[in-house]
Fold each of these.
Amino acid sequence: MSLTHHDSNARMSQIAIHGGTVYLAGQVPSDASADMRGQTEQVLGRIDDLLERAGTSRAYLVSAQIWVSDMAEFDDMNAAWDAWVTPGRPPVRAAVEAQLAKPEWKVEIMVVAALPEE
């Protein structure tokens, strides 16, 4: 099976594809001035873009890991998530509170998706 990396630098890749599985690096918001829902929407949009470039979509999500900086804002993150996730096809998911790499970030999300069968 082949292994390919995309959007790589010396430290990491944004996308890795192995066999029929796409792995994304943790995604963070580009505009940290937004509230939790806004930051989550930005992250989900970035995930959509990366999945499309890898040849798949959110309809093929297998799993998601979500880190939020404050569980008091968990419902706001979930509001954006629930509006985004493909109905009837939610991935397995874990969500925890964590100190993120930059204090202004409220959310980071990492997903794994399958490639559609041809």
Amino acid sequence: MSLPTLTPQQAADKIRNGAVLIDIRSNAEFAGKHINGARSVPLDQLSNNPLPVSSDDIVIFNCLSGMRTRQNAEILQRHAASCREVYLLEGGLNAWQQAGLPIEAKPGQPLDMMRQVQIAAGSLVLLGFLLGQWVSAWFYLLCAFVGAGLIFAGLTGFCGMAKLLARMPWNRV
């Protein structure tokens, strides 16, 4: 079963009337920018922590683009089952910003993890290719290793590179 969605304006109206906005992105993403008044409950920590809501609350879940909330709607609904109403913010933080609604942004925060993984994986593939061309064909194995890692991450949902990058000093919140 999928959860109903709200446009940014509809969500803003409900928030003004007391709805609780739950941001399911990582702590680092939330620290970089988030919707004013949102509460951070990262998706990976949701099973360990109860939602900071009561049974009388209207809950709206958001992420960056709305994709994570849609993909995890069943899990989110299960965790908010006792709430009065549960919604997803259509288009996430991106749509909220495009609608001209207020956000809280802190410049100088790290890039979101997906972009860091894309930059690191792309850099390693390019490095492996260039070294394979100029130094030794053995360096092409680096490209294959990164490609295999990306396929594994896509199939299993576990990304070793993201786990490694999350431990880097610039990603500590």
Amino acid sequence: MPELSNPDIVSFKNDEQTGGVSSKPVEDIEVKDAQMIFDSVWHELEKEVGAENLKFPAEIFWLNGAPGAGKGTQTAFIMEFRDLTERPIVVSELLQSPEAKKKIDAGLLAGDREVTKLVLRELLDPKYESGAVVDGYPRTKTQVECLKRFHRRLSDLRSKYLGTFQESQFPKPRFHIIMLFIDEDESVRRQLLRGERTIAHNKEVEASGVGTKWETRKTDLDDSSAHKRYKTFKESTYDSLTTLREVFHYHFINAHGTIIEVQQRIISELKYQSSLELDQPTYDRISSIPLAEQLSLHARQILVNRLDSYEKFHCELFEQVVGLIKSKFIPIVEKHSISGLAYINSEDAVLNDPLAIAMLIDVFTERGFTAVVDIRKMEVPARIDPKSFEIINRVKNVYRVRINFSGSKIRRG
């Protein structure tokens, strides 16, 4: 496979204008290189498809990981979780395309510029309109800087066309950086294990003549090569991507453990992020409404505080509600212990106080039940008007309480 990154840039660089050396920091040089690379790629794409046709996915997941971290295994899960139907864009596969191979053979595929163009050009395919996963980009500091400029350019396009008939073609860009991480020892162990499995599989294919051989990676067959590959990842890709923590939503996934354990961490990381996925005016409008997870975080503590306050400040009413539950509700609930569901109607006057209803719900909640109260107003005959002989009705409240709980798991049949 061709070298994807530019040659290492040393701390000093030849300065042709002065005949000496320039003492510009390496970081500044990389930023400048990235700016030139990205501007060049963007200009070529504008000429190729037209500026008005630069329509990229609204949501892009940039996936990277340590060698052996399980990118291939977890990519399908990530796509299913986010309802993405198109297969991921894999940089190593882009470099094997007929177009890329033609450039490689001509000695034109030299580094970050060509890789960046291949990725952006692929992202223009309309099939990725709803979202895309890009596996293996960015991998170098220069590519990281290009990614920042890409997001900035998409944001500029969004601002430019906001309020016009083309607004829907340029959505707010949402970038997710996903890093599957394992430590060096685990990475080397998994690389070498993969090598052993590949050799065994290929021998079986040769012997049986059935199946397709797997690609053999040299780093999977040698301990020192596996360590070197991890060191390259850590010093180049990992360290570069950590600089994006403050720019995009950064999902750091601990990839140690079983596949299921890692997937649970992915689910936790990829939960809805409203500040990233909504346009700013929309987010500003609804952000004052708390997230469900924020409410549930301290729900138990808040419930306990409420119950204590009932006992302290509304002792008499609280005593009546608890007495009603014990005498009228619990006997009915016990009769429905197998199904775990009971409907109870009550006309008790104590429930006419809204605070009493809140107390009833909280007591059941603290005891492990789920209670929902529905108030129904019914007209019932009260008396007859002696002059008109019309029936005069009165309104009574009927409180219908639905109580859910874990039913019995007794064996049936």
